[in-house]
Every structure is written in C-alpha cells, then in structure tokens.
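FW: tagging you since you asked about this chain on Friday. Here's the raw sequence from the shared folder, copied in full. Didn't touch anything.
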Amino acid sequence: MTSTQDAMAFFKGYWADNPANDQEKFVVACLDTKHRVQCVVIVTVGTLDASLVHPREVFKPAFIEGSSAVVLSHNHPSGNTTPSREDHEVTNRLTEAGKLLGITVLDHIIHGDGTGDVLSIRECC
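HL: got it, structure written out here
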C-alpha cells in the first residue's frame, strides 16, 4: 500500500469479502517495510454504533509480525462514512502511540456497510 487510493481499494475489497453483519468491527492491516500487507487482524467487535479500541490490541499483531507500519479500518453499519469525533480521536491517539512504538499509522479507512463507500480520514479531514 503505497497510497491512500491503494489503502481504500484494499479495504473496499476486504469489507466486501468480510461483511460486519450490523456491528462495528475495527481491523488493522500490518505492513512490512515495503508496505506490503502481512496480515489483517480483527482488533475488536462492537455494537451497532461503537467499538472500544485500545492501542495494546491494535499494535500487538504489528509487534508479532515485525511490522513497520499499519493501516486501520472500521466499518459504519449505518452506511455513512462521515467520521465521528471519536473516529478522529482514536486515529490521533493511535498515531501518537505508534510514534512511541516506532510503528507508523499510515491511514484510517472507514467503510460504509451496504454502500461500499470508503473514506480516508487522512485524506478527508
């Protein structure tokens, strides 16, 4: 994944193949030094409109894989990809945690269930 467009296309395909069934799911794609996807891990499954995300669970698979970067993604069961205040806060908190750990958070992609729309928090806001 070398661009926002790559990340959005990747997660559009991921969510099409792994629908969330009316629950928010938060996933992390772990990337190697050339930004190739090593794995995608479900970090948390929430409710219709929320999920609890902790840096410990987000970065654990990246440590295990020896990743240099991650791309975050979660779905909005409503289909509306507009990021909430909480979405921005989580992105900022995880970006800062990643800096401390030496793992770059490249982007956070939101998928709209039922619409197939995707949005990059880095690009939009």
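FW: The beta strands are 25-31, 37-45, 69-76, 104-112, 118-120.
HL: agreed, and The chain is about 35% helix and 30% strand.
FW: great, closing this out.
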